[in-house]
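Posting this for the archive.
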Amino acid sequence: MNTRLPVTSPIRPRIRFNRRELGGAFGDMGTDFPLLVGMVAAASLDACGVLVLFGLMQIFTGWMYRMPMPVQPLKAVAVIVITQKIGGDILIGGGLAIGLVMLALALTGALDMLSRLVPKPVVRGLQLGLGLQLATLALTNYIKADGLTGYVLAAVIFIMILLLTGNHRVPAALVAVVIGIGYAVVFKPEVRSVMDSIAVRVPQVAVPSMENIGTGFLLLALPQIALSLGNSVLATKQVAEDFFPERKLGVRQIGLTYSAMNIVSAFFGGVPVCHGSSGMVGHLAFGARTGGSVIIYGLFYLVLGLFFSNGFETIVKVFPLPVLGVLLLFEAVALISLMKDTAAEPHDFPVAVLTGLLANGLPYGFLIALITCPVIYFWVRNNKLRLPG
């Protein structure tokens, strides 16, 4: 998908709510929805607080940045919580710890220093690693989830998106979601019980304990920070620079909104969140050009949380994962395709590929790649070596 934008928009553009923004609004759903579902189930969280806070944070960033600056669940945190059954109190405490750490990094200038030390090919490699992870998740978990009918559904959605690529009158991602809802109505009769569970609910205020903040820091914040620095801060800044170079977005601002979201969410039952390069690329790939897409997406979760959180367990069971898998696959391809600008330089492409392979293939791969690959890059350039590739 060609999502590159001409450099013609004003510094503070008007937020739009049109078909392009509506189509782009659901471009990141394949990443977010399953992770939210997994954390709600594994940590026994109140779906109301999770959904409402997640929606409000989307609306906040769409309004503040006026570009498709998404909010995503923290991926390393989600994996740990889902696989190790971390309790909700520790998860919330860990989110507050992560927010405080990122606040310190932003205010002390550490993020600015990091952005100067990590070269663009390494950032592209981190995006490659994340893209490979998302594609693997889509192909091995989501698309095959409903058996034969799921494969047929995925094939229909895939072909439909290909045919609608570049068509700004018919939003491909929205059509995919509508088809998924229709599929659920036809093949999963329990969807009708969702209407019976409608009730107005609001998040409850809770203060994380110092014990849970400390435990959350050790179990969740430490594994997450490296991925956040690479993907949520550096890679997101790079995507914003690719598509909106006139905005001059800095890592300090990204770090401050990242920290603010997690500090606020922790007191209302929200899960830890971040910005993300894959999410921005997902919104852009399906047509978004302003913060309107993120606001629309946030309203979707806000409505779910306020009115349908009692029936969220049923919604999770009936919405077809193959639809999310295809959306996630297109997001992954768009993210990987950003690698193409490293092909012109003999040093850049091999380093980017090495970074991506390390990030994708090793435990704590993003941390290892973030530390080692800048050293390799500058050593190669300083010694004028030519890497194969």
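Residues 19-382 form one domain. Residues 177 and 323 are 7 Å apart (CA to CA).
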